[in-house]
Amino acid sequence: MLQRLALAFGLLLLGPLLATAHGPTPQRADETLAIAAPPDAVWKLVSGFGTIGDWHPLVQKVAVTGGEAAGAERVLTLAKGEITEGLDEVDTGAKRLSYRLLKENPEALPVSFYTATIEVKPAGDGSEVAWSARFYRADTTNEPPEDRNDEAAVAAMTDFIKQGLEGLKAKAAGK
């Protein structure tokens, strides 16, 4: 009886420790920007999986393999290295492009995985572009270093998306 009581007490003490031993929670970045250009013109800039290098200021180079359909891959060269993304869907009717991270590089972008969607919608005389991403931090251990924690991942992904939207806006305006 005493052994059972000791075991039960031990399990009660371990319970809170086990509850804190979990992995990272998914993070998100959602940004929207109005662009003074027709949706078809903005979609033409966004819809090519390899065209991100034409308008995103942080993308130095793009190499696409597999065409422009689901299953295609692109390697983006950023200031601190390369990442590889895979195209999940191009929905021309909805003007929506979805992709995911296939090969991470925490030095280039402090995330371990993400899925992202860019969608172009009509808004007044122009367009509204929504870019959303769901992701995990680069270091998925319970105590990541500051440059690979949730805050670093959110800051980096939000900056990447915001700069991309501003670059897209400038490109659509002919700048």
From TrEMBL:
Pfam families according to UniProt: Polyketide_cyc2
Position of the signal peptide: 1-21
UniProt keyword Calcium, yes or no: no
Keyword annotations: Signal
Keyword Signal listed: yes
Coiled coil: none
Protein name as catalogued: MxaD protein
Organism for this UniProt entry: Starkeya nomas
